[in-house]
Amino acid sequence: MQFKEEKIKNEGQGKWIITLDGEEYQDFLKRAKNRLKINLEIPGFRKGKAPESEIKKYLTPNRVYNEAFRLAIQPAHEFAWAQDPKLRPLTTPEPKLAKVNDHEMVVEFIFDIQPEIKLGQYKGLTNLEKTPIEVTDDEIDQVLKGYQDRFAMEKTRENGETIKKGDEVIFDFKGFVDGKPFQGGEAKDYKLVIGSGQFIPGFEESMTGLSHGEHKIKVTFPENYSAELGGKETEFALNIKEIKERKLPEIDNELVKDLNLKGVKNLQELKTKITNDIKDQKNREEKNRFVNHVLDEIVKTSDIQIPASAVNQQIKDLKKEFEQEITRQGLDLKTYKKLTKMTDADIDREIEADAKSRLATFLVVNEIKKAEKFVPTEADINQKYADLAKQFGLEVENLKAAINPEQVKQELESEMLTNFLFNNNGR
């Protein structure tokens, strides 16, 4: 492959130009033909079983070129980044087939160029406070209870026996507000441990003492639950199908033996491990929280001119994300606006502000990386592969085949940036 880059005059855009020719390009054409042959459907012949004479009629040069282009996009994109280009994309580079024939293919990647910015103060920000990390006894007990649950012994209660705290119940339920069912208020064969606090206050308490069969209970949703249900009394129709008494093991050295955790031989060592694990998790969360605040402060004091085309593209992407998210929640836009009391204009303003914030943060991060020259060494990359292999229980070589070194390098750069901003700011 050959690489060139150039600015598109008066557009604030750039392009990377990748030329494929010689044996490398012929290999792409060969792979494209083979892939098309496998999936080619020709009347009168089974898929992939037509004779060569018939295949040639359907396998036109344009179809082969287009398939070769699809195959070449990712390798060409990775090759461009590997050339350490001077023109850096602000938006995702869009591939375009610029030229193609039997001897060569030219692929262009078009993108908005990262604008130059005047970076604000990014070290020595003392107006932000770091939160001290503490691990409470309650947090340790919650983890221990989770280990207890793993080895709980269950005994099915007979018909006529009633639900007690700690029992696991399998039941159907359907909720009604003002006599009408509401969205998300129905489930079948739901498993619930009474006393686990999964449901709204009063629900599990109302189930205590009930037996098998159909029942009705009334509970009131908390005021801050949602715009639709907050503070409303609700009736739930229940059909209790199965009740299981759960006997939990003691939290002692015997439980530790059953857990069979590496390097943990007794209860005290288990508590120490739990404490360290919680502390590590909290440290990661606090570091990310604090660094996000630092980045917000840096953005405020930096001079950043973001191209309108980049903002508009980011808005489109965020709108798509937003629509997918409300769909995942089982809502449509009309229902979402009713529940949140937001207008189309309100939603558009929020998305536009988020788009500008994301782009500004992206630019600030890249500028700090350049200023501080965060460059992971080969040893850093190999160690990261080793850590990931241990985490996922895979062989290092298999992981290297699955994860591109460039991805690992970018992850390490992000970690270096986070550590730098955390260590050089706050009090």
UniProtKB/TrEMBL annotation:
Enzyme Commission number(s) of this protein: 5.2.1.8
UniProt KW keywords: Cell cycle, Cell division, Chaperone, Cytoplasm, Isomerase, Rotamase
Present the record's domain note. Consists of 3 domains; the N-terminus binds the ribosome, the middle domain has PPIase activity, while the C-terminus has intrinsic chaperone activity on its own.
Q: Which GO terms describe its biological process?
A: cell division; protein folding; protein transport
- Asked if Chaperone is a keyword of the record, the answer is yes
* Name of the protein: Trigger factor
Q: Which Pfam families would you find in this protein's record?
A: FKBP_C (PF00254), Trigger_C (PF05698), Trigger_N (PF05697)
Picking any one GO molecular function of the record gives: peptidyl-prolyl cis-trans isomerase activity
Give the protein family. Answer: Belongs to the FKBP-type PPIase family. Tig subfamily.
